[in-house]
């Protein structure tokens, strides 16, 4: 049987498209990758079996409008753009491509850490403006303590490089029990125990009701004065006004942010005016290798489910759908 796969973007990495083509699928790409109206119109008018979801919203109305829809896979790991509750109500599993972009995100994390510590963006701008400004207050990372909030595949990769740089590394992840998966990393049972010991704080957590504004004014105040904060997770896990206040006051030395509470970043955002902030436009997973990994992972997820070949159950964010009906991931 030929399946119809709808990709909510104008393109998918060729490796992913080849997998779908080899399976005889009909693939629909969007004309406008930001149009929720186009998503809803396509799902209401086409016999779509599966959606590979990029960044545009996949609403409850869109999900309910397509009676043939059987499975959704996110091209990535964050699902705030997908109405998972609506999918669950329809007994539609929602998969993610966990780990596909982990290396690329880890590398950007390290890049932001180094750029923030040594004021690379600021000094580059000074030199291009004709000023030979030699900052004397850069931070050497060797000997400093890196605190990781979230210690999955990304955090573990960051930890290994940080240890090689000569940093001490500690982490908090409520989902981890037992010994650390990375030798030399100390695990904490509570976030409040980690923060006072952290010179560089790096966030690697999903956005959910428990993590929204997790790093607020009170927790920022637990960091040693002059700490650095790095966020390549989701902008909403930080209380942004509290972060801006800490950067302005000098409580934080610097921040490196790939994600912000509002994206795209508004032109009048105070973050853009702060000289001690390094900003990138949510590009942690935007390398050819990461895009290919996410595309192939998403293609395997939807085809695996549609053909009964069981995608990795741990990649499903709403596994309860398998106990509430006759469907099975196997």
Automatic annotation (TrEMBL):
<keyword id="KW-0560">Oxidoreductase</keyword>
<dbReference type="InterPro" id="IPR029753">
    <property type="entry name" value="D-isomer_DH_CS"/>
</dbReference>
<dbReference type="InterPro" id="IPR006140">
    <property type="entry name" value="D-isomer_DH_NAD-bd"/>
</dbReference>
<comment type="similarity">
    <text>Belongs to the D-isomer specific 2-hydroxyacid dehydrogenase family.</text>
</comment>
<dbReference type="InterPro" id="IPR006139">
    <property type="entry name" value="D-isomer_2_OHA_DH_cat_dom"/>
</dbReference>
<protein>
    <submittedName>
        <fullName>Hydroxyacid dehydrogenase</fullName>
    </submittedName>
</protein>
<feature type="domain" description="D-isomer specific 2-hydroxyacid dehydrogenase catalytic">
    <location>
        <begin position="11"/>
        <end position="311"/>
    </location>
</feature>
<feature type="domain" description="D-isomer specific 2-hydroxyacid dehydrogenase NAD-binding">
    <location>
        <begin position="110"/>
        <end position="284"/>
    </location>
</feature>
<dbReference type="InterPro" id="IPR036291">
    <property type="entry name" value="NAD(P)-bd_dom_sf"/>
</dbReference>
<dbReference type="Pfam" id="PF00389">
    <property type="entry name" value="2-Hacid_dh"/>
</dbReference>
<dbReference type="Pfam" id="PF02826">
    <property type="entry name" value="2-Hacid_dh_C"/>
</dbReference>
<keyword id="KW-0520">NAD</keyword>
<dbReference type="InterPro" id="IPR050857">
    <property type="entry name" value="D-2-hydroxyacid_DH"/>
</dbReference>
